[in-house]
Amino acid sequence: MTADSPGIATHPKFEFDNAGLARDYEEMSAERQLKTGQALAERLALRHGEHVLDVGCGTGLLAEHMAELVGPTGMVLGIDPLPARIAIAKRRAREWLAFDVGDANDLSVLAETSFDVVVLNAVFHWLPDKARPLAEFRRVLKKGGRIGLTTRPPGERTPLQQVRAEVLAEPPYVDYRQALERSLFRVDEAAMRKHLKDAGFRKIDVKVVPSEQVFADAETAIRYSEASSFGNFLGHLPEALRDQARTEICKRLEVLRAGQPIVRRGERLVAVAFK
């Protein structure tokens, strides 16, 4: 069986991302990921003068918000493995706000105990291995420092995911079958607590909160999924088939929504823990 065979988890591909997807993410995440990130920052009670590491910072919207909270006596560093998104984020840079391409699995360029807070907003489910990144986050945190994460638990099946699965199960797409869900590594509340405890964190607080996203139409929902998955939504298909599959998914989703907005209701895990 190959890595893309049914039943085998496949790592998300970073090479599918491009400048257009990065611009879409910048536009569309402002009403979605940014708001969950702002709520997480509030729970973390960021203070003036603190140093914050934003892992998977995307185009830097949340990092910019957190820089306002810590002020010029603090520092926020945003890292992301996607160069096109870091290129946009760097436009926000200032003396106490910086961005760089970086990998959550290897923070060796960062000194031990150099941050008060580590933040992962809508990122944890993209990490296949949880132990190594969590060990890195703990290493760079100061004693008493805290980590905050938001992610979606397993089990959610949105209308868009259902339609996408149906289309990709049909010829000619079935020959290239690679479900996006197998590029996601979701954890439930109990698993999140265990991962944090095993990594050496304490005072672990994990909550499940309701989550809702509204999309005006099928096109908007698909654009958002393409951008937030950095091209993994249909990136596994040959380029000649992507537009064809996208059109079919959009057509079926439009029929399904019957003129109503597409509402994605689910849950979100929010976790805070201390070193």
- How is the CATH topology of the domain at 14-155 and 184-214 and 265-274 named? Rossmann fold
Strand order of the largest sheet: 3-2-1-4-5-7-6
Given as residue ranges, the uncertain stretches (5+ residues, pLDDT < 50) are 1-8
**What percentage of the residues does DSSP assign to strands (E)?**
15-25%
Helix percentage: 25-40%
What's the CATH H-level superfamily name of the domain at 14-155 and 184-214 and 265-274? Vaccinia Virus protein VP39
Q: Which structural class is indicated by helix and strand composition?
A: alpha/beta
CATH class value of the domain at 14-155 and 184-214 and 265-274: Alpha Beta
| N to C succession of SSEs | HHEHEHEEHEHHEHHE
Radius of gyration from CA coordinates: 19 Å
* Strand elements, count: 7
Summarize the SSE layout with pairings.
Elements: H1 19-28, H2 33-44, E1 51-55, H3 61-70, E2 75-80, H4 83-89, E3 97-101, E4 115-121, H5 131-140, E5 141-151, H6 159-168, H7 189-198, E6 202-215, H8 218-228, H9 239-257, E7 262-274
Parallel strand pairs: 1-2, 1-4, 2-3, 4-5
Antiparallel strand pairs: 5-7, 6-7
